[in-house]
Design brief:
Mean pLDDT: 95
CATH topology: Rossmann fold
Order of helices and strands: EHEHHEHEHH
CATH architecture: 3-Layer(aba) Sandwich
Number of strands: 4
Number of domains: 1
CATH superfamily: Response regulator
Structural class: alpha/beta
Strand content: 5-15%
Number of helices: 6
Helix content: 40-55%
Radius of gyration: 15 Å
Length: 154
């Protein structure tokens, strides 16, 4: 199962989700069952040379505090051709869902979902990095539970 976490810039919420989900699948001993990545709906964090920016420093500090290594993650833009390569695209907010649907010209296979019922507000704007981390952690845990149940049923 391939899962793409998506937010606006791929420097705050979606890389957090990628790293948190990665830890969860390792703890559950499911590394071979799930592949995870993250990307942005915009190219704002991609340089003219095509290289993405690293995770936003306050997010990087937060992740380090919680035992994650964010050093290798660089922003990446979501591409139209990703639709065929992934099972799910997990947006952090309603705006991300709209942007994905526009990029993919719809969602015929129902692959676009939101991480939580409530939007995960962008901590770049709110400054609430810890709140976003908690929301994303809870959302990732619920997502993994849902995917495991879905696999068992199908």
């Amino acid at each position: 199962m391939k899962i793409m976490f998506v937010c606006h810039g791929n420097i705050c919420r979606s890389p957090m989700a990628e790293l948190i989900f990665d830890r969860l699948i390792k703890k559950a001993q499911l590394e071979g069952e799930y592949f995870r990545a993250s990307s942005a709906t915009s190219d704002e964090e991609i340089g003219y040379d095509g290289v993405g920016n690293p995770i936003y420093p306050p997010v990087s500090e937060l992740l380090l505090k919680h035992g994650y290594d964010p050093s290798k993650k660089r922003a990446r833009r979501l591409r139209r051709e990703d639709y065929d390569d992934y099972n799910y695209f997990v947006g952090m907010d309603t705006s991300n869902l709209r942007a994905m649907s526009l990029l993919f010209s719809g969602d015929p296979d129902n692959k676009i979902i939101k991480l939580n019922d409530e939007d995960v507000e962008d901590p770049w704007y709110t400054g609430d990095f810890e709140g976003a981390y908690k929301q994303i952690s809870n959302g990732c845990l619920e997502l993994l539970k849902r995917l495991i149940i879905e696999e068992c049923v199908n």
